[in-house]
Amino acid sequence: MDLIGYRDATLKLFTGTANRPLAEAIAAHLGIRVGEAEAGRFSNGEIQVIIRENVRGTDAFVVQPLCAQVNESLMELLVMIDALRRASARRITAVVPYFAYARQDRKARGREPISAKLVANLVTTAGAGRVLTMDLHAPQIQGFFDIPLDHLTGTFILGEYFAGKHLENPMVFSPDAGGVARARVLAEWLGVPLGFIDKRRPEPGVAEVMNIIGKVQGRRVIMMDDMIDTAGTVTRGAEALLAAGAVEVYACCSHAVLSGPGVARLLASSVREVVVTDTIPLSQAATQSGRFTVLSVAPLLGEAIIRIHEDLSVSRLFEGPAV
Asked: CB-based contacts of 284: which residues, under 8 Å, 6+ apart?
C-alpha cells in the first residue's frame, strides 16, 4: 500500500516531547501534519498539555516512546491521552514505539512489583482504546493490556539492512538465552546459522559471559537484542566472540536506550558497527561518532496506523518488511 500523500480529516497524529522527529517522519510519510498540541510544565514541574485544534469525533494517534526521562515521558503520554478523551476524540491509540518498565514483567523474588502491568493499566485508565508498540522486552506483556494491542517488530528492517551488506560467512547470535526466539527470526530470514551466549547476572545491570553456544570460528557475527541499555552485555559478548574466533562483530537492536555508560562502552569496544532503529533518539555523542547506523521505523508505524484507522488487518506487518 502506497501511503505517501494519504489524507483523511478524521485521522489526527499528535506527539509528546520524547521523540518528535519520529512523529514528524510518520506524519510526512502519511502526507499529514503533526497535530497542534503543547506539552509544557507548571512552575512546580507538573505536566500541562493543551490540544490546540478540534479533535471531536477523530481517530487520534499519540506517538510517545517512554524514553529519555522515562517517568516524564509516561506522564506526558497519560495526560495527552486524557486531554484528547475529554476533547471527545472518537478513539485514541497510544503509539508507544518503546515501552518502558517492560523488564519488570514478573515477580522474580518476593515483594517486587509487576510494573509493566501497572503501566498497561495506567494507559488504559487514561483513555487509550488501543496500543501500538514495537519489540516488547517480553511478548507476554501483550496480555497485560485489557484493550487491543498491535505488536510490531523491527527485526525485518534490521534484516534488510544486513542482507544488503552481503557479509561473508555471517551468523546471528543472541546475547543471552532469553533472546534466542527473537534472534532465530532474524537468522531464519537471512538464512544463516544461529548461536547464543550463556550468561548470568550476579546483580541487575551486570552481565557475565559463561559459555558460547555455536561455532563462531571465521564468522562475521550479528549480535541481536531488543534493546541495548548500559551495553555491558553487548561489549562483553563481543569480546568473548572475538576471542572464540569470530572475524568481526556487529550489534543491532530495535531500542537504543543507551543509559549511563552505554555510549562510551560501545565506542571503546571492539564492535564494528551498532545498528539501531529510531524508536529512541540517539544522543549527540552517539550520532557524531560514526559507529552507529540508524534505520527508520516511520514507514512501518505509518502502515500500521493506516491499517488501524481503516480497520484493516495489521497481521501482515508481523511477517515481513513493510513497503
From this structure: none
Q: Is residue 6 part of a domain?
A: no
Rounded to whole angstroms, the Cα distance separating 32 from 9 reads 9
Per the CB < 8 A criterion, the answer to whether 307 and 320 are in contact is no
Q: Which residues are catalytic?
A: 199
pLDDT of 323 reads 37
CA distances from 165 to 129, 168, 170, 291 (A): 41, 9, 10, 16
The contacts of residue 287 (CB under 8 Å, 6+ apart) are 294
Residue-wise pLDDT tens digits, 135-174: 999 999 999 999 999 999 999 999 999 999 999 999 999 9
Extended strands (E) in the chain: 11-15, 37-41, 47-51, 59-63, 91-96, 130-134, 149-152, 170-174, 194-203, 206-213, 220-228, 248-256, 273-277, 292-295
- Rounded to whole angstroms, the Cα distance separating 154 from 225 reads 11
Is residue 18 domain-shared with residue 64, that is, in the same domain? Answer: yes
Mind listing the pLDDT tens digit for each residue in 292-306? 999 999 999 999 999
Residues 276 and 223 in one domain: yes
Q: How many angstroms separate the CA atoms of 153 and 136, rounded?
A: 9
Structure confidence at residue 322 as a pLDDT band (50, 70, 90): very low
Vertex 15 angle, CA 12 and 19, to 5°:
140
Q: How many CA atoms lie within 13 A of 242 on its CB side?
A: 13
Q: Strands 91-96, 59-63: parallel, antiparallel or unpaired by DSSP?
A: parallel
Residues 280 and 302 placed together within one structural domain of the fold: no
Q: Identify the domain containing residue 172 by its residue range.
A: 155-295
Q: Is the distance from CB of 39 to CB of 17 less than 8 angstroms? A: yes
CATH number at residue 85: 3.40.50.2020
Instruction: Indicate if 106 and 139 belong to the same structural domain.
Output: yes
Q: CB of 102 within 8 A of CB of 114? A: no
Going by the DSSP 8-state scheme, the letter that residue 318 receives in this structure is G
* 194 and 176 within one domain: yes
Q: Provide the mean pLDDT of the chain.
A: 93
